[in-house]
Write a structure and sequence with these properties.
Layout lengths: L1 H5 L4 E7 L5 E6 L1 H7 L19 H17 L3 E9 L3 E13 L5 E9 L1 H30 L3 E7 L5 E6 L1 H7 L11 H4 L5 H17 L3 E9 L3 E13 L5 E9 L1 H28 L10 H17 L6 E9 L1 H8 L1 H18 L5 E6 L2 E5 L6 H16 L3 E2 L2 E2 L3 E9 L2 H4 L2 H15 L5 E3 L2 H23 L3 E9 L5 E12 L3 E3 L5 H7 L2 H21 L6 E5 L2 H4 L2 H11 L4 E7 L1 H5 L3 H12 L2 E8 L6 H7 L3 E4 L1 H4 L6 H16 L3 E4 L5 H10 L3 E3 L9 H15 L1
Parallel strand pairs: 16-17, 19-21, 21-22, 22-23, 23-24, 24-25, 25-26
Antiparallel strand pairs: 1-2, 1-5, 3-4, 4-5, 6-7, 6-10, 8-9, 9-10, 11-13, 11-16, 12-13, 14-15, 18-19, 18-26, 19-20
Helix pairs in contact: 10-11, 11-12, 17-19
Amino acid sequence: LETLVGNAPVALFEYRVAPDGQITLPFVNPAALDIFGVPAEGLESDGRRLFAHIPPEDVALIADVTERTSRTLQTASVGYRVNHPDKGQRHVIGEGTPMRLPGGGVSYQCVALDVTERHEAERHAERMDAELVRILERLSRVAEVAPVGLYEFREAPDGTWSFPYLSPRMRDLVGLDPEVEDEPGLARVFRHALPEDARGLLESIRRSRAGAQRWTRRIRLAHPVRGLIWLRGDSLPQPQADGGVLWSGALYDVTEDVRREAELAEAHARADEMRAENELQALQDGLTALPNRRAYDRLFARRIAAARAGSGPADAILLRLDLDHFKTVNDTLGHEAGDLVLRRVADALRENLRPGDFSARIGGDEFSILLAPGATPDAAEQVVERIQRALGEPLLHHGRPCRFGASFGLAHTDELGEVGAELQVFADAALYRAKESGRSRLEVFTPELHRGILADRRMAVQIHDALERDEFVPYFQPQVRARDRGLHGAEVLLRWPHPRHGLLSPPEFLRVAEQLRVVPQIDRRLMERSREVLDRWAAQGFVAPRLSFNMSAGRIRDADVVETSRRLAAGPTRIAMELLESTLVEEESDAFRFNLDRIREAGIDIEIDDFGSGHASIVGLTQVAPDVLKIDRRLVAPVADDPRSRKLIRAILEIAHTLGIATVAEGVETEAQARALAELGCDVLQGYHFGAPMDEAAFLDFARAWPARVA
């Protein structure tokens, strides 16, 4: 018996209450200790410890039952909670049978069972029942007010069809009598459907059942009240235990949707017609009526694709045409004359190209000509000659001649599939060479040009690498005062210590840098490094009196240049920006002068470089109001021996001094030149006679030693 009781899964214990109220537990099995979460020690002397983890309100409930049954001596049960120290809150049902003890007191033979899982299951079921009731009530309300009809459609195992459920809206949509309470069949529900739609309806239901697929269909109904309407049904089939199939779904009135779709289809049709017309216009240049860049790109891409696929010719000849002096026509005669020139070029192309040749205006005054397959370079040159003759015929605009020419670049390949779009690069390179070589001529792409392109590409990669490695450095060419040969300052010149080719000056890489559009980055870094040099010189006790930087007119507009220059100008060294003389001719706008004013406000001088090499007017000079004029080295070179040169320089100096502008002579190579310029009244001298451009350390040594040299 002890073994049986000790292994029982329920709590068994004797609970005694003495006449004086003392509670003892003569017997407690292990299951009771586990259920109540208490140790065995101390229970025999104090039975209340058994209830140590029972909430006070539940202990009071147990006490009430115990007190009542002690009078009636009837078996009673009670449910209560145990806050088990390891298992958390548990639910327990206990039952006790009381009996009187000799000498007074009551003994309860008790059984307790942990019913937590059953309790949780019952609570969950109660919650689910309540939630189900709420869902059904909600669905019922939704079905009553929803603008769609809800239904259940059933196919019985014997093949008969019925609707176990139809919402009020569903009955209204199909024109069914709302008072009918039975389960109507398919034919009755859709008795107003048009015959041709009803036949398709039956077949769609069979397909949905056979494939266990979603049923979706539109049907037309001759509604008894609304007339012809469109309805759409959606439902999902679900196999039933009895072998039938149940579809649950909804029916929508889509009459307005169908009407809008018809209107939209009509609008799409009109849009397609307009798109086709726009596509035609989009492929044509409006001014010249030639195909445009888009049309050219499409044709060229198709030629390449066909060559690569082996379905088209592998050879190709591409001509690039660019007008010469077109800007002059626009500037002197106006854009109307420029348009007349472009139309003349288009006419010349149409009249002188052969069947199969393709020409397009690809932008501005640039044209592309893709000759028909099989054309030879000799034939291409003949085409160019005919076009040049046509363009050479006089063209008048309001009685004034429009003078212009055209340069051509030609590229040919027998392996278009391999060369691909590179052919355009080759033709552009040949055109560039034609422009460089005197304009109004044809240049043919050659292996030499190809090598030049490859060299430019290598140079481009190296320039990017040089920027990342911060390889561009400032060099400094000294400037001295003409009157006493004291150090006036230096011009900052860009140099690139190339890892393979040695020290490079701008003419050797600047063209490629301009194509890469990284010149602003290089200029900015040059100024930053110059500022670092000034700081290092100052730490060694030397302050450079003045530094000047070459700057294009476009860079002057860059706010970053102003800020960088402002930081440089904050120190003791005077900072100047050198602009080419051509800037006076090309930039006379209010915006340009405003930018110059911003630079001056930052404490930066303005210098005009290479003065005397361009065509700047005195008016332009007074408007820009530079601080310094730098006389071009080509005027300086003969000054020691040529009286005319001295007269010209004297005139420039007199103009400058009249306007309060200082002067610098560039390219001073001999002492004779230096003396002649000083005698003429030039303020500052610069050239190899005093020092070549030098790096930071060399210039510092030069500056420290220069006073002794002068003495």
